[in-house]
Amino acid sequence: MRAYVARRLLLLIPTLIGMSILTFGVSNLTPGDPAFAFASRLASRPATPDEVAEARKDLGLEGGLVPRYFRWAGRALQGDLGISFSTRLPVRPELVERARFTLQLAVPAALLSLLIAIPVGIVSAVRRNRLTDQVLRVVTLAGASVPSFWLALLLIVVLAVKWGLVPSAGRGGAESYLLPVLTLAMAPAAVLARFTRSAVLETLSSDYVVTARAKGAREAVVVGRHALRNALVPLVTAMGTSLGALIGGAAVVETVFVWPGIGRLLVEAILQRDYPVIAGIVLYSGAVFAVISLVVDLLYAVIDPRIRLVAER
Amino acid sequence: MRDEHFRIRATGALGRFQLSHLRKIGFVLVFSLVAAACGGGDDGGGGTDQAAQPAVNQVLTVGAGEDQFVREGTSANLGVQPVNANIAETLTYLTPNYEVRPMLAERWEFRAPNTWRFFLRPNVRFHDGSPLNAQAVKTTLFDRVAQQRGGGTIKAGPNSAVVVNDLTIDFTPTAPNYRVPEQVVHPSNVVYAPGTDTGNKPVGTGPFKFVEYAPKERLVVERNSDYWGEEAKLSRITYRFFPDANARRLALEAGDVDVVLGVSGPDVKGLKSRGFEVMNSPVGSYQAIYANILGGPPHDLLKEVAVRDAINLAIDRRQLVEGVLEGQATADQTMIPPQALGRYRNKITGTPFDQNRARSVLDAAGWRPGADGIREKNGRKLTLQLISGFGGAEVHKPVPTYLQSELRKVGIGIDIVERPDSASYQSLIDSGSGDLFLERGSQNDANVGFLPTLLFYTGGSGASAQYTKLFAPGPRFDEILTPAVTEPDADKTQSIVADAMHQLIDVDKVVIPLAGLFQMYGMKKTVQGFTPHPSTISLRWDTVSVGTGR
């Protein structure tokens, strides 16, 4: 097991290097001059050639793409992700700070989505093709399809503007978490519920479930102990993907709810052609997904003792 | 066993209860959500019709746009730009009508050949208690700007500022610049207390003092009780940043903020119907098309003045303003805000709407309607690429579509190319890839010659090479505009620039103005004393107060 984990962690290095090359290359080849964007923003009008030249020098954009990549990569190896083109502050502390805000939403949203998804999925599977199942399937389909910006605005209009129950946006007390967490949790809850339903349905028709029923086990035990546990492996994979997306930052939700997380930072960075921040966020997201993927793989072995993790030789 | 049995029965009963009631509750909830979302028009707490008494707590929350403060370097501008919290002040002030008024400088004078002398206001103190004097102005304004390449718009050099006495300072630009008092109104030229950390804790002379800043969330300032002018009415202002315009409006409707900056046209009616005030500033921005008159094939069709003339004639600006922009603009054709041109604004006549004449002009130029209605000449179709636009394509919608339909009526085809932000738009300017370039621009200082010089002038330095290589009208325009560069008198400069704009718009037709735009501010009716400014970065908050309503 240790060898497996070590190998997976080592694999992170070439993955992140590949991602950094791709990100650095693509963002630098995107149309638009970050020096112009920076200088124009400062001037509140199209920048003059002098202002653009000044900005180019300030932002370290002089020289070719390859030498700039190696300069950046050399510093990144020492933990220095460069200086933001927009704020002129170091990227790494900014990323850490923003990731903290994102986690404040992502963790409760992930928990809430699980709390909704698993019972809904089980009920839907157990009551297959009955009215309850039909209704839940429609609701989960709607939940998975509704765009988050629309849901966010709808929740603001109803709960903040009409009823005045919660603030419309911004970080504050516990009540300020309600709308963004609800919005964030909706799509993964719907997707996971559908996943749970199909996974439980599949196991409900398995021989061991039939055997358990034949032996007179109560339905709750059949579903909870036999069906659900065996359905967990695909479910954990889906959870991992959802959690990765949540921790990676939800740009729309963070923008609408004025939540200064990673997603919002990425949107701002793209619009400002803030290459160091874009590269930093991609590295962060890549690392998050890789770690979650590793955790998911490790969980397989915990959930299903038949699965053994070994390092390939 | 009994316990377990009981639990199972209880759970079953609860389950049945939940199922039947949850269905009802769910139905009611969904119905309420939809009904509430679809409803509207009622008073959403927009305050009262009258605001008679001042509130005990003079506290205001402002909903601003994206937090774009720079935190480090010579450009650090926390609390100054783009949200001006009135922490630090400039030597001169830009009024909403584009007049220059004294601020930290009581008066100023031009001293030939190229020096401006500023006489500072006495008895002014920074928030840290230190006095405003010529040395502070030298260090934190002129020497700071001199560190920027080219010395900023004012052309400051390391030896430009000379302290004459405690309250007098001379400024000599590195190149002739007769527009300095008009330029230093811009908040990038504020004066700080010496030693101020301008990116983290700005200290100025303004009516409000810095309190706290949470990046991307809020900036808080409080009243400066030792202000040199009339003390601010508000004790505290919190600026909250809402990048999304819808969220900003909803925050106002929810009562989370008292004022929002940058209301969009479609939101105006809704806000007013819910009992909120929407105030318009005088015109300070414009929407216009620049014609690529110097492009190579395939972007060389606009070299023909007749085509530019026809485009101008084919656009119904009244319909554009009333129908497309929902009345939230004016049909001005000056590009530069009319009031900035003073009494010379009428020198720019603009082009009347006349699609029959547009067709005649094109007929006379040899452009004949093709089978698909688009005109042709020598086997070439009159189809133009419209690039939308500076400031991002989103802010221009649906104007490009309207232009496309209007121009098609006279046989001109338009392909719309949208760019999501100014940087990617600029890359098309750089490469000259396009025929018509749709822009929004703002006048943020009192130097009326700045934009025409930056974008179209080839007679001296300071122009944008990328713009002039596509849009420079040529020697006649340069000849008219050149005296403005060396004219210290503001009135004469207005006259010269108006002549140049007449040449640019009415004669050369390089710029096709569409509309004059104003800034729109939404607020609760309890907010009093707010003066809408066409340049958001010059807003003043010291006259604002909060009433209690009826």
Automatic annotation (TrEMBL), chain A:
The ABC transmembrane type-1 domain is annotated at 99-300
Return one GO MF term.
Answer: dipeptide transmembrane transporter activity
Q: How does it sit in the membrane?
A: Multi-pass membrane protein
Read off the InterPro entries from this record: MetI-like, MetI-like_sf
| RNA-binding keyword on record | no
Main location (coarse class):
membrane
Stretches that traverse the bilayer? 9-26, 105-126, 138-165, 177-195, 232-257, 277-303
Key words, A-Z:
Cell membrane, Membrane, Transmembrane, Transmembrane helix, Transport
One GO CC annotation: plasma membrane
Q: Can the keyword Cell membrane be found in this entry's annotation? A: yes
Subcellular localization(s) per the UniProt record:
Cell membrane
Q: Which Pfam families match?
A: BPD_transp_1
Give the protein family.
Answer: Belongs to the binding-protein-dependent transport system permease family.
Official protein name in the record: Dipeptide transport system permease protein DppB
